[in-house]
Design brief:
The structure is a single chain. By secondary structure, the chain is of the alpha/beta class. The protein has a single domain (about 5-225), classed as 3-Layer(aba) Sandwich (Rossmann fold), CATH 3.40.50. Helices cover about 30% and strands about 25% of the residues. A hairpin with a 3-residue loop joins strand 10 and strand 11. The longest helix is centred in the N-terminal third of the chain and has 16 residues, at about 40-55.
């Protein structure tokens, strides 16, 4: 039996742009956020490429891409992402701001995924980024798994190997720069990917054309979702730079080193 893989991927502003937080009437946001070019979240991108690789290896497998973002941003990003790997889009028309609540995002994703009747729960794998360039709470995938009733969850995944008996051998990052190997009997499971081990696939116009035939119609029918803010914010600002400089002449290297040590201890 093949796998039904749902990749949960956020849309984030291009990190090459200047990101300046501001307070709007509706809460915190980024200055000129609607004008900023968007990209697929880099961690979610790793998960998408791993999902496509796994689906290619096993017959009757299929990949879905679920994303909570404004329709205009989704359409912009899909023009590029659709050329990478085959998938079907599950669009959710909602805020992709980094100030939104992880629980609300997980609830919207769970509702949208549950509404896709073609997804077989017995072969379901939920992929996503272990971290995120926007909602870096590290909690959205876990909450999504709980809402879908999936108890087997793995975070910080670097590699996934399918055994001859259908079991999943998962290489996870743990503290101290080490890895642990976990064995899961099979789907359903939730995997939060770190970096994986695959390079970014080259653009394939034929794959892009095939994907966009389904992407554009479902984008027009994207389900609107109200994503709550993550608590209350009194102000938002870029962290201020702190620099303390003294100009001292004729100080010995030992004295400089001792002063640095005392400063670190403080």
């Amino acid at each position: 039996m093949g796998y039904h893989i749902v990749v949960c991927a956020g849309i984030v502003p291009d990190p090459l742009q200047t990101l300046e937080p501001v307070m709007n009437a509706g809460g915190p946001a980024l200055k000129n956020e609607q004008m900023l070019p968007a990209i697929l979240d880099p961690w979610a991108g790793h998960a998408l490429f791993e999902a496509a690789h796994l689906a290619k290896q096993h017959a009757d497998s299929k990949v879905w891409l679920a994303s909570v973002a404004p329709k205009a941003k989704l359409q912009q990003v899909m023009m590029t992402v659709a050329q990478k790997v085959p998938f079907e889009l599950i669009p959710i028309d909602g805020s992709s701001s980094g100030f939104t609540d992880a629980s609300s995002a997980a609830a919207a994703l769970a509702t949208a995924i549950g509404a896709v009747v073609a997804i077989d729960r017995s072969g379901l794998l939920i992929f996503g980024g272990w971290e995120s360039a926007s909602r870096a709470a590290g909690a959205t995938l876990q909450m999504l798994g709980e809402r879908l009733g999936i108890a087997d969850q793995f975070q910080g995944v670097d590699a996934l190997t399918v055994g001859a008996d259908g079991s999943l051998e998962i290489l996870e990052r743990v503290e101290g720069g080490r890895h642990q190997v976990s064995i899961c009997t099979g789907p359903p499971a939730v995997l939060g990917w770190a970096t994986g081990h695959l390079h970014e696939p080259p653009n394939n116009p034929q794959v892009g054309i095939a994907n966009m035939r389904t992407v554009m119609p479902v984008l027009q029918k994207a389900t609107p979702a109200s994503i709550a803010m993550a608590g209350a914010f009194s102000r938002v600002a870029v962290p201020s730079q702190r620099r303390e400089t003294r100009v001292v002449k004729d100080l010995s290297p030992d004295a400089i080193a001792q002063e640095i040590v005392e400063w670190i201890r403080q």
